[in-house]
Amino acid sequence: MRRVALPLIGAILIFMSGCGSQSSNTSGTTTSSNLSQAPVGLSVTDQPPTGITVLYFELNITAATLTSSSGSTVSLLPSNGSIPVNVTDLQTNSAFLGSRNVAAGDYTSLALTFANPQLTIYNNTGATTSGCANDTVCTLQPSTTPLTLTFSSSPFPITLSASSPLAFMLDINLNTVIQSDLSVNLAATSGVTVSTLPAPRPQMGYVEGTVESTFTSTASNSSQEGFTLQTPDGRTFSIDVDSSTTYNYPSSVCSTANFACVMTQQVVQAQVTFSNGALTATTVNYEQAAGVTVLEGDIIRLSTSNGNTIMDMIVQNGPGAPSGFHFGQRASVTVPSTGVTYGIDTGSFTIPSGLSFASSSDLLVGQDVFVAVQGSISNSSANSSAWMGPGPITFTTNSITLGQSQITATVTAVNASALSFTLSTFPNFFMWSTPNASSTPPWAPVNITVQTTSSTTFTNFTTDSISGLTTNNVVSVGGWVFSTPSGATAVTLAASQVMLRPGPTPLF
Fold it and tell me: How many domains does the chain divide into?
């Protein structure tokens, strides 16, 4: 899985032209059997800011419009318009939003409209900012100025051709667009840039939702399998699978590791690409079973009450959230001392030996967790600690699964022979020097040991391996956070991916 602690927004807009057919649906994937048209896809990714810790950042993309050389326009969004994007999911990932058929030809500009940002931060700037005191967690709804951006200079004009894929990347630098009053100014200088991306068959990122149906079709003496997926915001995608698709399911759920694992009403995450014009899953990650309510979030505080662990987290995702609850707010979860199962969502990745997640003593601030709801979810207006912002929802859990956190920091030491390196976090990430020992800030930041394996992917380095890593590199790391050994002060991150970033600039 994936989760971000320190995001910067970026959007990847993939313009692809080609032949073949893509399964059509009501959400924004469309059929392109006409060689005069090109399927145009939209995906989103991010990079991190400095100066504040962004625990949650959501923007709604309400319009994405291409203008042709003749002045005609075409929308890249589905007919129902606005798409909410939780950009805190996207530090080392990208999210597929949809695609549209676009007539081949010349296009002179792209206009994007954003609305309704929501921001949950930990303010460690040293001062009260926009009513958010230093060393506090705050949920804000900042203004955006302006809401619409139009790109008409390089790389425009562009030509869409049915036989020549073309891709663009839109990067929004959160260090620049977040202002000192925590408003969002998308028009800030160097806040947004556009560049071209290499083709062909770019990975479109992930799409997450509930499996509505599965299908097997036969055409031209060959069979095609796939499934329809509905996202929490109502988009529906038809996704093919093929012989190269991998299935990451716990063996207790499905041991065959093939399409037979995919069942209706499961919640899954599919990494997708375009193959011969169709949306195809390269990986299907199991998230939860039908009939089970699971919320995903980042742990921001651990305390105890009546012999139980109380785990406060910022909820990032989950179809079972109660009516009126907004992602980015806090949940207070009771973790009983007995009767709770623990697991690690590793997929095909093998966690290095000596790292444990088997009891409440292995919980750590900064971890990303999938938490099953036992019983009902209660709304509470109580605010047990002023620094934590709005009153939480509360529930009890009987199952916690460790997912991947995402951390951006500076490399302070490299031990290539041990396949490890050390990070010094910036800004103050939500970990403290003695895990579970304190319930109120401020906390001391810690150094994090990152353990890589032969399965860890390195991106943007001159040599894409640990040998390409050097001291003072700024990197985004996705992986599983452990206290090592359990209850000690050391923190280890088992890394599935490491991405080189530009060096930071101060936010304020």
Answer: 4
